[in-house]
Structure formats: structure tokens, C-alpha cells
Amino acid sequence: MERVEFRRSFLGRLSDGVNSVCEVTLFAALTLMTAVTILQIICRLCFRALTWSEEATCFLLVFASFLGAAVAFRRGANIAVGFLLDALPAPVRRIVLLAIELVGIAFFAVTGWYGAVLCVSERMQMASSMPISMAWMYLVFPLTGAVTILHLAVHVENLLKYGVPIPKIGGEA
């Protein structure tokens, strides 16, 4: 798609700021997951195995996966069949892209809602090897759902204003 010159809206700037926090948090989660895994290997070989490390690594992996998906949606890097869209006439392509973004918003709203319900219903359930409520683990669903909805709302705004979901910003897709 061609380069589109535009002025960032409040929603776009908010999405950018939230995405920056998500990227830093994602890096920290992946780094921590790697450190815990290395620590577990060292302890298992040289000392005594850590009882909590495997569960912590699993939780960090799930958290990083959902956070990474939110970052990917911000960049428009989610999986797509682009050649089909490119074959459509521009007005139809815009309608199809808008429908895709709206379905995404609906999906993440449902995911976030049921994640919040799960947080409440499982708040007394504890993780099996760590003294942490499972509500903290399930919080990833409403949080990343809200972040992804914000990013998709910016895509909808850009589609309506400029005809493209993600205008190029300084070389970024």
C-alpha cells in the first residue's frame, strides 16, 4: 500500500504509548522466563530442583504469548491472506478490512469479558506450586483483550479516515 501522510489522533497516540509499555513488558517477561529456565537447569544438575520454576515458566510463556499477540495486532503483523485482499477493488477491500477489524474487536471483547469472569470465579484457587491466586494468571485475558481492542480501534479509525488500517509511521508497518 502507498504511504499515507496523517496526523496521529489521541487514540493513535494512546495506542502507541500502551504498545511501548507492552513491548518493554514483553521483553521483561521473555527475559525472566529465560532466566528462570536457566536457573532451573542449573539447580536440577548441581543442586536440588526448584519446585516452582516449571509452573512460573509456563505462566510467563502464556503471558508473553498473549502480550506478543497484542503487539503483533498493533503492527498489523497478524496472520492474513493478503493476496485475496489485494485482488479486490479498493472500495470492497476497505469494507472487507473494516469487517475484519470489527470481528477482531468482537472476538477480543468476548475473550476479555470471559477472562474477567474467570478471574473473579477463580480468585480463591491457588497455583499448584506457588502461593499466587490463579486470578493473577487469568488477568492476562482481559488485559491483553483491552489492549488489542485499543489497537484494532485505531485500525478502524485509520480505515475510516485514510482508507488503510495501519499507515506507515517512520518506516514501521
Fold topology:
Blueprint: H1 10-46, H2 53-75, H3 82-87, H4 90-121, H5 134-138, H6 140-162
Could you explain the architecture of this structure?
- The longest helix has 37 residues, at 10-46.
- This protein has one domain (10-162).
- The radius of gyration is 20 Å and the shape is elongated.
- It is built from six helices and no strands.
- Helices cover 73% and strands 0% of the residues.
* Strand proportion: under 5%
Helix content: over 70%
Q: What count of domains describes the coordinates?
A: 1
Give the overall average pLDDT: 87
Instruction: Sum up the overall morphology in one term.
Output: elongated
**Count of beta strands:** 0
The description of the largest β-sheet is: none
Question: Which stretches are poorly predicted, pLDDT < 50 over at least 5 residues?
Answer: 169-173
Order of helices and strands: HHHHHH
Q: What is the helix tally?
A: 6
Structural class: mainly alpha
What would you report as the Rg, rounded to the nearest angstrom?
20 Å
Ends: how far apart?
A: 10 Å
Briefly summarize what is shown.
With 173 residues, the protein is mainly alpha-helical. The protein is 73% helix and 0% strand. It starts with 9 loop residues before the first helix and ends in an 11-residue tail after the last helix.
